């Protein structure tokens, strides 16, 4: 029996997940829930499934799992409703725009015993396992500094992304969440403190955010997310006591990248890594988690951690001081 999916949202990301469902064995798209019947029908004509405009009514017996790809401010409500309707949930990032909402989602998923996964596709990149293995093998010595940058050129804020009450933040949520999650996934340890500067200063819709994050081991991460740089920046680096690990092209839409380790004398090892099917991996992971009961790759823990760090970053930028990361 295939896993039958509903998609909430009818925009760019909904289309991407619909295409991934189409390419995933044993997955079937049964319903698209749009803001309006028209926008749902537009995507359904293209990708299949029946159109709907009422989430609760749409989540019938022919739906096993729900992808939530609505504007950020609705993620918590839509994911919560889907869980309470008895469906597994893949929610896009940011999974929630407040820490209490994030905690509520995780608690709701635990209470109903269903899968709650976040669409943090970097978690599924084959390069992540390689980077983690090399670091665990002490190839670079003790990690001291993590650096992650994500920028895909200048991007105008339009539609819901230009409305602070729907978006919550701009570069921090659109790109920064991925960079934060990848640093935490590679470091395999939690964040303790955040100091953030955003530009324009004092505005919720940041075009550029720079975070300094102290990790539990004492290592420090610098994270840049920008929607106004002229050039792409897709950088992940871990600088250790003996060598530096650098990973280029770690994030979709880049499909190919390279992980290398170098010392002051030059490169010591290099591997090319590919991830042409990030969203198929995300969909397949949710299905496997539902089938086996194992946690998804980007689980409630990653959800809570990314929301805790982004919340600390927003507070830090607003208050112009370092903020401890709280999870409860
Ligand atoms: N994981 C990733 O790499 C990744 C990449 C891109 C986006 N995302 C996430 O995916 C989510 C959707 O982004 P997107 O790029 O797909 O956005 P999008 O193309 O602008 O689509 C937004 C969707 O939300 C609906 N919508 C717009 N304004 C609304 C409102 N006021 N009330 C209710 N619905 C409204 C739109 O409906 P209409 O068509 O009827 O206006 C459309 O279905 C965001 O949370 C974003 O952070 C994740």
What does this structure look like?
By secondary structure, the protein is α/β, with parallel strands linked by helices. The chain has helices at residues 12-23, 37-47, 55-58, 75-84, 99-112, 126-136, 164-167, 171-187, 278-292, 300-319; strands at 3-8, 27-33, 50-52, 65-68, 88-91, 116-118, 143-152, 191-199, 208-215, 220-226, 232-240, 244-248, 256-263, 266-274, 323-324. The chain is 36% helix and 29% strand. A nine-stranded mixed β-sheet has the order 14-13-12-11-7-10-9-8-15, covered by helices on one side. Helix 6 (126-136) packs across helix 8. The protein is globular. The termini are far apart. Bound molecules: NADP nicotinamide-adenine-dinucleotide phosphate. NADP nicotinamide-adenine-dinucleotide phosphate (NAP) is lined by residues 9-14, 34-36, 39, 69-72, 92-93, 119, 121, 159-160, 166, 174.
